[in-house]
Amino acid sequence: MIPRLTATLPACLPDAPLFDALVEAGFSGDMEKGAASRIVAATDNSIYQVPPVAVLFPRAAADLRILAEVLAKPEFRTVSITPRGGGTGTNGQSLTSGVVVDCSRHMNTILHIDPERRVARVQAGVVKDQLNQALQPYGLFFAPELSTSNRATIGGMISTDACGQGSCLYGKTSNHVLGLRVVLMDGTDLWVRPLDEAGLAAATALPGRAGDIYRTVERITRERSEDIARIFPKLNRYLTGYDLAHVRRDDGHFDLTAILCGSEGTLAMIAEAEINLLPIPACAALFNIRYDDFNTALEDARALAGLGVASVETVDEKVLGLAKGDMVWSRIAPFFPEAGERSANGINIVEVLADDPATLEEHIARVAQALDGAAMRHAGYTIARNAQDVETIWLMRKRAVGLLGNVDGPVRPVAFVEDTAVPPENLAAYIREFRALLDAEGLSYGMFGHVDAGVLHVRPALDLTRPGHQAMVRRISDAVVQLTRKYGGVLWGEHGKGVRSEYVPEFFGSLYPALQDIKAAFDPQNRLNPGKIATADGSPLLRIDDVPLRGSFDRTLGDDIRAAFDNAAYCNGNGACFDFDTASPMCPSYKATRDRRFSPKGRASLMREWLRLLASRNIDPRHAAQRHTRLAGLLRAPVRAVNSLNPANADDFSHAVREAMDTCLACKACSGQCPVKVSVPAFRSKFLELYYTRYLRPLRHPIIASIETTMPLLARIRPLYNLATGTPIGRSLLARLGLTALPALPPRSLEAECRALELPLARLADMQALSPHERARCVVFVADVFTARFDTAVLSSAVKLARKLGLSPYLAAPHINGKPMHVHGYLAAFRRAAIATRTYLDGLGSLGVTLVGLDPSMTLTFRSEYAALPETRLTAPVLLPQEWLSQHLAAIAAAKPAASSQATLLVHCTERSNATASLAAWKGIFDAAAIKLDITETGCCGMAGTFGHESANRAISDRLYDMSWKAEVNKDRPGHAVMATGYSCRAQVRHMNGKALPHPLAVLEARLAGGSD
């Protein structure tokens, strides 16, 4: 049994005097100081870990003003604050031991779009892709591109002056900022916009903090102009933050936003931004150029950039190899063909843009002519013209930053010298020395970047739990700083300074005191993100090896425990799970709550801390799980009851972890879409198994976990069951058990359906008696309990369809899939059931018969949960319906009627994220049946197996349905058959919309002629 655990965090705020003062002053946002919130905010995408004392989530600019005014009171003068956006920084920009101010949860409204002026006004927490999605109907977009665009907030982009691919064409974020609404530390609410001479005179005459700021910056830019011109580099990726070189613009205006963009929250809190927009390019194409040598790719990149293209991106062999195992590779593999067994050792991706197709083709021809010339040394290239192909290739490139974390073992590429910038003409020579430096340390590494801008992301592979590897952070960082200076570059070309601010004084030299003067004008008491970029009071800047490393916290875990819990400890904080898009399957619970604790990154952080606390007590959770037998569980039931009632256990950190796990839908989108393959459902089950050795389970858990064994019994008393689910009294009683929205059993039972269909059971002895030819024609439907008992019409359609294709259908003998057990942490019971089922299914498979599942989530359990254990790993594949039918396209085409039709398919989110390649098979199948198929992109329906049937989860379930599926189900599609693959999805639609969506097997079966039925 696990013990009661207490998170070992630095002291939080005293008994809420700050919170009380904020409430009294009218602060309307959320305020959190619990261990879970602090742990989740303690990390970003950097190597550091710094827990804050509290996290605030303001709702509007008024809350930021109130915060500043309250903090100005004498009793709170020691409290520092740090603004936070998407929390994906690679240099610890938003990490603090003070108070985090997170604008992403509530301040995410697009306030105004003016398509005529091409201007948008947004709150700081608006996500870049969210904005561009809203701008698309106007033919406009917010141009600065970055790999984290689906979770990066506009406020965060401004704070780091973010940019990425295409910066030579579109510039940085600061190039598109027209005005900023900021709140100063004295509570001043100030709009900052470019000023002409009269406006500047008025601004410098302002009283108070605002006037001090304008006077200070004006004086520095006037008096130190020669130093500014000499020190600031002439690069596309010029220095981020305190950008004195661009305050006085070419048009004569004085632009204070140049100081604020890239200032990383050290000067003011950003509330709103006014930004300029650009027309979306009408036409785009990508050249995908392969190389045998990465250095050759870098050397060619300079010539490619000179062809007038929009951007040139490069990826090395390490990242390319990892991409081949990613979910998007199946869609783009044809653009990166391999010659025999020879793989590319680097690629360049060249983007060509145009306003019309004819001009695009002219540009393509010009680039192709150059590539076909003798000067280029590539190993071949392809061209992507289709918009979806272009988007998917860019998605692969965007995911490169996360993919570098998806390697086995504790030594993994990490970010700490990853965004240097040098003049592009120096890049190849610079990288040769950079590689020699890492090779001399005996390190592997991955590289990718924006070679047209002279920026390359380099991530050395280290295990920062090892003291020897920790020492390399200092040694390599110092060497890279000197190397960038040798080649006329900067250390901070893209991702900002953060903890690496210690190199700022050396770089700026005599101009550094001017930066301190700017800091003092904005924040004289050094309370905004202290220790970064510049300090107002002469206190030291942060140093890269003084800030606590995540590896130092993980050292007690050991490699075996880190490896045993499904990459929870290896989450690198890249934040792919913070995807705002409701049509994306990634982490529905985060989308529904906007609470980062309820995201894969949040749950991984909490699990990692929980494992660390156990390790500090010399408890190996793997051994604790092995000791948890059925008998031990029964004998310890009284102890668990006492523990559950004991007030002394109220602050057990395990409760905070369980609260985060309870909102997980076990949809497995994280395991399919997370670049690092963090699998929350897998480690969630292991956690729940151990958690409930100490505490009592809710009554609904054993009811749900045993559903596969109890359903045949409930089917025998169908009228009583339906009375319970269909009447107010019955539903009230079920609610007391924690259950809701339970479906009714159909009039015809599974057994009656099988008799009507004359469908035999696939018993091993009977199948062995068949000839090899007969077995080859057999298809065994491995029906899950939900489809088989509640939606028998799907099984009927599958059987009739099989016969129309000339096959002999069978139903798998009674067996237990075990997914409901696994979801709720009954892992010992799952293992026993899975061994029996694996034995049976492998027996069938060894006879050469085809096994086909009906529900995607239950079928994919055989590929994930079963595959996780050697004793339950199947050798016989259980196919998804589309994988089976794709083997019979000729028979489908021969049996279809002459007239064509249309259909829309809504796929299960687990299928969409974990069996991505199989979705294309549906299109081929429906094409063969002369049905034009549209596969609609939707998020999670909210039911997710049994999740939506639990009363505690119903609010989230309803919210998710409204966010994504509701609009798709209600969309007017004349002549379309609207279908859904997942049983839980169809049940949710029936519950929420009162509509019955067919399974695609039913539509296909009705479509095909012939057969023996």
Describe what you observe in this structure.
There is one protein chain. Helix 11 (294-305) packs antiparallel against helix 17 (427-440) and helix 17 runs antiparallel to helix 18. By secondary structure, the protein is α/β, with parallel strands linked by helices. The two termini are 57 Å apart. Among the domains are: 293-344 and 379-513, Alpha-Beta Plaits (2-Layer Sandwich); 563-696, no CATH class; 731-1007, no CATH class. A hairpin with a 4-residue loop joins strand 18 (445-450) and strand 19 (455-462). The strands form 6 sheets. Strands 12, 13, 14, 15, 16, 17, 18 and 19 form an 8-stranded antiparallel β-sheet that branches. It has a 5-stranded antiparallel β-sheet with strand order 5-6-10-8-9. The model has no long low-confidence stretch (mean pLDDT 93).
Core attributes:
globular; 49 helices; alpha/beta; 1013 residues; five-stranded antiparallel sheet; Alpha-Beta Plaits
